[in-house]
């Protein structure tokens, strides 16, 4: 199964932004136990490339590991060298999209307006990240004229509303602070809570 097929099957991408490098493996392990099968390390995190490399080496056979906040070609190249299997951006950068396609990486550029979404898709984006996704109705409205484009909802997604975004037509979901809280001390209690939150997210879309 290709990386894209796996992302579409599992749907949820956990966003790790600002997780200390020494905590990334236990956090990823807890997410995996909760049913998460894909995660992104944002490149504006401390030691992001090292974290991607560590995760890929330790858990690459269990989890899809990608890079987020990929803002330019240099970041895309560095992420690929670290082992990222997909590239997620908050914006449309056609050079990043082209690089991803040339190197068999899944490209998930970010867009907001209909014009940006279509540009990202026509430039080769595999899934278009709608960011920020203010509400499910916005996804539904975009999909009115653009129902041929796969959309990923990001921004404020949690276990209580994720099914609404799914019903609106989103095929994938990026989940950040409602899942991984970087200000919390990472101990056994936190990891158990993290697994529980991940389970609720997975169950919320599995029942739809």
Please characterize this protein's 3D structure.
By secondary structure, this protein is α/β, with parallel strands linked by helices. Helices cover 44% and strands 16% of the residues. It has 9 helices and 9 strands. The protein has helices at residues 3-10, 24-33, 48-59, 73-82, 94-102, 114-122, 136-143, 162-168, 188-206; strands at residues 12-16, 38-42, 64-68, 86-88, 106-108, 110-111, 128-130, 151-154, 172-175. The protein has a 7-stranded parallel β-sheet, sandwiched between helices. Strands 4-5 form a two-stranded parallel ribbon. Helix 3 (48-59) links the parallel strand 2 (38-42) and strand 3. The radius of gyration is 16 Å and the shape is globular. 43% of the residues are buried. The mean pLDDT is 96.
Strand order of the largest sheet: 3-2-1-9-8-7-6
The portion of residues forming beta strands comes to: 15-25%
Mean pLDDT: 96
Shape: globular
Instruction: Tell me the radius of gyration.
Output: 16 Å
Helix content: 40-55%
By secondary-structure content and strand pairing, the structural class works out as: alpha/beta
**Structure summary, number of beta strands:** 9
Main β sheet profile:
7 strands, parallel
Distance between the termini: 23 Å
Overview in brief:
By secondary structure, the chain is α/β, with parallel strands linked by helices.
Task: List the main descriptive attributes of the protein structure presented here.
44% helix; 208 residues; seven-stranded parallel β-sheet; two-stranded parallel sheet; 9 helices; alpha/beta; single chain
Layout: helices, strands, pairs:
Elements: H1 3-10, E1 12-16, H2 24-33, E2 38-42, H3 48-59, E3 64-68, H4 73-82, E4 86-88, H5 94-102, E5 106-108, E6 110-111, H6 114-122, E7 128-130, H7 136-143, E8 151-154, H8 162-168, E9 172-175, H9 188-206
Helix pairs in contact: 2-3, 2-9, 7-8
């Amino acid at each position: 199964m290709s990386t894209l097929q796996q992302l579409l099957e599992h749907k949820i991408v956990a966003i790790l932004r600002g997780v200390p490098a020494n905590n990334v493996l236990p956090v990823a392990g807890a997410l995996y136990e909760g049913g998460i099968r894909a995660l992104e390390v944002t490149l504006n995190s401390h030691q992001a490339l090292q974290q991607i490399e560590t995760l890929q080496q330790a858990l690459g056979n269990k989890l899809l590991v990608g890079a987020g906040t990929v803002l330019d070609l240099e970041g895309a190249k560095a992420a690929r060298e670290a082992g990222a299997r997909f590239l997620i951006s908050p914006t449309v950068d056609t050079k990043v999209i082209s690089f991803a396609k040339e190197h068999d990486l899944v490209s998930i550029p970010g867009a907001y307006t209909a014009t940006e979404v279509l540009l990202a898709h026509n430039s080769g984006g595999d899934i278009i990240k709608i960011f920020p996704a203010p509400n499910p109705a916005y996804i539904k409205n975009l999909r009115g004229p653009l129902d041929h484009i796969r959309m990923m909802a990001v921004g404020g997604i949690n276990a209580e509303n994720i099914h609404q975004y799914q019903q609106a037509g989103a095929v994938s979901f990026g989940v950040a602070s409602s899942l991984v809280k970087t200000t919390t001390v990472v101990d056994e209690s936190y990891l158990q809570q993290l697994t529980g939150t991940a389970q609720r997210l997975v169950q919320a879309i599995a029942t739809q």
